[in-house]
Amino acid sequence: MIGRRIFVMALALGLAACGGSKPVQTKDGLTPVSVRVEWLLSSYHAPFFLGIDKGFYKDAGIELTVNEGRGSVQAAQLVGSGQDQFGFGSVDAIMRGAGAGMPLMSVANIMPVMGQAVYVRTASPIQKLQDLKGKSIAITPGGANDSLVPLLLGNVGLKPGDVKLVSADPTAKIRVFLKGDVDAMIAPAWSHSLFDAGGGARAFIFSDYGVKVVGYNIMAAKPLMQSDPDLVRRFVGATLKAWDYSRTHPDEALDALARHSPTNAEPKRRAGNAKDFANALRFVGPAVPGKPYGFQSATDWEESQKLFVTHGVLTKTLPVDQMMTNDFVAPAAN
């Protein structure tokens, strides 16, 4: 209920901001556009900066600003209220926003499957998920993927009560895990560098054990989609080009990130980013065989929504075509 109230408040406060007027162009004839990513700038945000530095956005008539976020839910709120034209975030946040009345939709898929993982320390005797019996896992209460942990454990034969779930916020999770206060923790599959100071960690990927939900997407507000569909199409095209290029040129992408983000230019951070970005790119690619990169699977959305409802992340279902569209991804392929 709290999440729904936040969405509704953001909708009421910001709906006028996305009322449909087209952005003013710069003196160079470019359209200023912002994209809100779901977290502090990290390795897997590098493709946006590569797109800037390679001129992909400029070629599309866009002057792009990348804004940091504090979670996919916040990104959805800011896009739905018109404070950012586009957002990058998880599918559950888009579903929650749409369910709360936010006028936003997913306009392209970046990661067909969410890369979430259970981490154990490298020195841990835990060699398989079944070894977690009698152990503890740090989770974030209300986190969509954390809510699927019981399903994950059930898929490997563990019962409720076999594993102790310890609630902690994202920062505290890392701290208690590195201290050894818990045996495992939940984090994205591209988080390995976070654990280097504690001797490293090994990951068990959710999707390898039958827990699959749609991953990260590009979202936009419906008023913008209606008032300036060409801008949405140009942004989606440039973004998909940047991500696709980054798959085969990861170092170029990380160099671009470092130029725009001094924190990510530090040698130690840059080395960690190389490892993390390689893991993130494992989850980047086409969602539907025979369709272009970015094209979204309605079936995958339906199955993800059912899982989220079953495990308490969502309270209701919506028709998928109210939450996602492929109209802006290579329309000729639809």
Automatic annotation (TrEMBL):
It comes from the Bacteria. GO terms for biological process: thiamine biosynthetic process. Signal peptide: none annotated. InterPro entries: NMT1/THI5, SsuA/THI5. Pfam families: NMT1. Gene3D superfamilies: Periplasmic binding protein-like II (3.40.190.10). Residues 43-253 form the SsuA/THI5-like domain. PANTHER family: 4-AMINO-5-HYDROXYMETHYL-2-METHYLPYRIMIDINE PHOSPHATE SYNTHASE THI11-RELATED, RIBOFLAVIN-BINDING PROTEIN RIBY. This is SsuA/THI5-like domain-containing protein.
